[in-house]
Amino acid sequence: MNARRAPLRTLIHALAGLLAALSLAVTLWTGLDERGVALAFGVLVAVGELTRWNGAQIREAAPLGAAAALSYALLGENAGQPTQHGALQVVTVVLAALLLGNVPHIARGQGPTSDQLARRVLTVGFAAVCFQPLYNRGAFGQWCGPEYAVLLLALLTLTALCDAVLAAALAHSRTRWPFGPLLRDELRGLLGIGSAVCATGAVMALAVAVAGLWALPVFSLPLLLTQLSFRRYAAVRATYRQTIASLARATEIAGYTPAGHARRVAGLSRAVGRDLGLSDRELTVLEYAALMHDIGQLSLVDPVPAGATAGLPTREQRRIALLGGAVVRQTGVDSAVAVVVERQADPCGEQPVAARIVRAVNAYEEKARDAGPGGPLTALEELRLATAGEYAPEVVESLARVLARDCLTLPVVG
Q1: What is the pLDDT of residues 288-331, one digit of tens each?
Q2: pLDDT for the residue numbered 389
């Protein structure tokens, strides 16, 4: 990993490791308080992790495990009796259950990443440290009924914000993508599955305080069903993307474009879009459009040599782009993807951002491929010289940053 990226990520991992080690040491020294409660929540966290979804890149793969962990961190009573477990015990139980529930996933090579483990430990630790010491000292004794529920929701909201900042910081340190858009995407994600996790965590903590541990299976069942439904949704998304990738390969199979061209353009376009601060949804549209940007060539009687459309007259480029947009619309893909494909050959000032990116990246890939060993630098210089009329200057400069930062010149040369 690039040394410039490591410090923040290393610091977060070190803090999580230190908290986990301290919690484990103290818990082993003092023993578990209220073992029945710890076992019940530990089992629920483990079940949530066992049913996690590893088939796609999603924001929260184990919502039930996350909700159970937060509920245990904010648990103050069990059937009307005050609990005595502290913040360090919460971290120990959650971490042990998390690792136990992921044993089958780890055996298949699909276990949680170090970033995910660090986030879970620090997030749960944050919630527990904010609640347990104050509750055990009687600081919340005057809070009751609706006021207490609002207090839990406020703490969970603060914890969710902490988790979003951690996730964005880890992604920024790992990829060097702009922190602001990453944080914005994380905060937007809180409105979906994140809000369900927080609400379920609060409800479970309140229910156990009144009805005891029997409330856990009752109030966790809706989120478990949601998690199973979410797995099916993620599977559909993965299949959808595979279908688009297969359609994109049609031009390669037919001999219209070189092998891997669409994939390379899509990967580099997504990196440029990240650098420019596009949202997750915009990045998805951009990626799909980049995969299918050459599909209009299937309508041509005579193939373009090597599929290099960047060197064609503008009128011909627009005709191929419009043919491609028509094909995309017939496939049932999001109409926003078709718009990007259709407008990739329009004048630069009239294009949406995604079309500007696809146009510049496609031209770079074609020029770099055909220019020999020094192709990447030569191609980038040609794009810079042509920015006044053909390519958006901000896109070309973003492309240069991505190439310099992530060493993406190599894949486009071969």
Answers
A1: 999 888 888 877 766 677 666 777 777 888 888 888 888 888 87
A2: 66
**Cα diameter, the chain:** 81
- Of 76, 65, 219, nearest in space to 149 by CA: 76
8-state DSSP, 112: P
Counting every residue written for the chain, the total comes to 414
Opening angle at CA 211, ends 205 and 216, nearest 5: 55
C-alpha distances in Å from residue 399, one per residue of 4, 29, 260:
20, 55, 19
Q: How far apart are the C-alpha atoms of 343 and 318, rounded to whole Å?
A: 8
Q: How far is CA 402 from the centre of its chain?
A: 19
Closest CA to 130 of 165, 164, 90, 98: 90
User: Phi, psi (5° rounding) for residue 77?
Assistant: -140, 155
User: DSSP code of 62?
Assistant: -
Query: What is the CA angle 231-291-362, rounded to 5?
Result: 145
pLDDT lower than 50: segments of the chain: 1-5, 56, 408-414
Residue with tokens 């699909």: 110
Could you give phi then psi for residue 371, rounded to 5 degrees?
Answer: -100, 5
Distance of CA 392 to the CA centre of its chain: 28
Phi, psi for 321 (deg, rounded to 5): -65, -40
For the stretch 330-359, pLDDT in tens is 877 778 888 888 888 888 778 889 989 999
Separation between Cα atoms, residue 8 and residue 17, nearest integer Å: 14
Angstrom distance (rounded) from CA 326 to CA 319? 11
Structure tokens at 62: 């184990």
Classify residue 121 as exposed, middle or buried by CB count within 10 Å of its CB (0-12, 13-18, 19+): buried
Helix orientation angle between 35-50 and 87-101, rounded to the nearest 10 degrees: 40
Contact 62, 124 (CB under 8 A): no
Quick one: residue 177, left, alpha or beta (phi over 0 = left, psi -120 to 50 = alpha)? beta
Q: Tokens for 86?
A: 């502290």
User: What is the rounded CA–CA span in Å between residue 359 and residue 395?
Assistant: 10
Q: Is the dihedral of CA 297, 309, 408, 254 positive or negative?
A: positive
At 178 the three-state DSSP class reads coil
Residues 6+ apart with CB under 8 A from 232: none
